[in-house]
Design goal:
Elements lengths: L9 H8 L27 E5 L3 H10 L4 E6 L3 H9 L9 E3 L3 H4 L6 E4 L6 H10 L3 E4 L7 H13 L5 E3 L7 H12 L6 E7 L20 H5 L26 H4 L1 H12 L10 E3 L3 E2 L4 E2 L2 E2 L10 E7 L5 E5 L5 E6 L3 E4 L4 E2 L1 H4 L9 H7 L8 H11 L7 H20 L2 E5 L4 E3 L2 H5 L15
Parallel strand pairs: 1-2, 1-4, 2-3, 4-5, 5-6, 7-13
Antiparallel strand pairs: 7-14, 8-12, 8-17, 9-12, 10-11, 12-13, 14-15, 15-16, 17-18
Helix pairs in contact: 5-6, 6-14, 7-10, 10-14
């Protein structure tokens, strides 16, 4: 057995080793939420890395499918709360503040990564190398370079299931219906898509403080620059600092841009825009050469309309203005979808009445039955195959999201070669494809 492979108890070996050939067995669909939950004696053992607000929600979901045996967070308060939570640790899980303790355990089969964005790829690559199946929240990456690193790692460790938390890919009545309608050509040729993702909040100046005793601020920062602790840089609000995230470009963009590209068949490697126009973007602080000039205020864009142009004439507008959701504009009709509704003449007149059923759902689900989001993850662990929220399509989404942020930060148009995955003709923009990481926090190359 290779050193990186998980050693499991015989009672769980069948769960982890079932061949993908079982996918040939017909599925019996009794409802749109057919459960993939394993039997009690086949439950995988799960370690949860990052158990703040979102992490706790995900951990509770994972507990339906396996036993949470370890929790981890650099905030000791979060860690202990998760350890004793009735749905998560139940007082029996081990608690760590260093995620490597979880990866070192040969008895853990699955890890759930719900940390701030700038930690995702480092932990995920190391988890794959340790032989774990991985669930990781969106947005998966911090930079364009990280997109390549995580894709490379997943290609090398293809025996592991890697699942991204883009749950809109499992919404049958809204997003999947919209994707199917576009893919079936019912709107005609789509020429414009508007992804409304809202603007980031503004705030500051904030004061430097002494970190709470229960928080390892040095470790929380990870690869990011070493700075004084500010409460508003940490936990949920890390999203509004380019040092740790991409603002709304990657927060909501990871959801809505994903649906837009999936519907258009542009979620495959080698596809993507050729020009990204960031001239209509504003930030709450002054920027110079793409860098914020204040370090005590939120710095991600609060008002923008960034346009990605594709070589076939399609325009994708990623904007803070208007309704949150996705508007597809085709030659035959328009369709709007968000988490609350799907609307437009194609919906009112049911243009898809004969073109949307179990067969179409299975096609979208890569040959598996439609079901709950994490159900699909655990089914793929048992049966093999790519999950509905796979790393490869998500990387294509993150390419567009990161390019949008770079163009917005520079306030100009940039050119992108989707085949080579390089920013061309602009050395300053190309330099923003990666970042210098603090010593000791580099990402291993798979």
């Amino acid at each position: 057995m290779p050193a990186h492979q998980v050693k499991t108890r015989p009672s769980r070996r069948q769960f982890l080793a079932q061949a993908a050939a079982s996918a040939a067995t017909p599925y019996l669909l009794t409802s749109s939420r057919a459960s993939a939950a394993p039997s009690a004696n086949d439950r995988p053992r799960i370690g949860c890395i990052g158990v703040g607000s979102m992490g706790m929600g995900d951990a509770g979901d994972h507990a339906r499918f396996g036993d949470i045996v370890a929790v981890c967070d650099v905030d000791g308060g979060h860690c202990q709360r998760a350890r004793y939570d009735d749905r998560v640790g139940r007082g029996r899980a081990d608690a760590y503040e260093d995620y490597r303790r979880i990866l070192d355990r040969g008895d853990i089969d699955v890890v759930s990564i719900v940390t701030p964005d700038h930690w995702h790829v480092k932990i995920a690559v190391e988890a794959l190398q340790a032989g774990k199946h991985v669930f990781c929240q969106k947005p998966l990456t911090l930079t364009l370079e990280e997109n390549r690193l995580i894709r490379q790692a997943c290609q090398k460790h293809s025996d592991r299931v890697f699942f991204v938390g883009t749950q809109q890919r499992s919404d049958r009545d809204r997003f999947l219906r919209a994707v199917n309608m576009v893919q079936k050509g019912l709107l005609g040729r789509v020429t414009k898509i508007t992804a409304g993702i809202d603007g980031a909040p503004t705030g500051g100046p904030f004061q430097a403080e002494v970190p709470p005793a229960e928080l390892d601020w040095y470790m929380w920062l990870g690869q990011a620059p070493l700075v004084d602790y500010m409460k508003r840089r940490c936990h949920y609000e890390f999203r509004w600092w380019y040092e740790y995230s991409g603002g709304k470009f990657t927060d909501w963009g990871a959801h809505h841009v994903d649906i837009a590209l999936w519907a258009m068949g542009l979620d495959k490697q080698g596809t993507g825009p050729v020009e990204i126009d960031g001239t209509d973007a504003h930030h709450p602080v002054e920027f110079k050469d793409g860098m914020p000039q204040r370090h005590d205020c939120y710095n991600t864009s609060d008002d923008f309309n960034v346009i990605s142009r594709f070589d076939d004439g399609l325009e994708l507008h990623v904007t803070s203005r208007g309704d949150n959701g996705i508007l597809f504009e085709g030659e035959k009709g328009r369709l709007f979808v968000n988490r609350g509704r799907i609307s437009g003449t194609p919906i009112d007149e049911q243009w898809d009445r004969d073109a949307y059923g179990d067969a179409e759902l299975a096609e979208l689900y890569k040959g598996k039955p439609h079901e709950g989001h994490k159900d699909n993850f655990y089914r793929c662990i048992r049966e093999g195959g790519l999950p509905v929220s796979d790393v490869y399509s998500h990387v294509q989404t993150m390419n567009v999201c990161h390019l949008s942020a770079i163009a917005a930060r520079l306030g100009r148009k940039i050119a992108w070669d989707p085949k080579s995955e390089q920013i061309t003709g602009d050395d300053q923009a190309a330099a923003m494809m990666s970042r210098v990481r603090r010593p000791g926090f580099d990402i291993p190359v798979a």
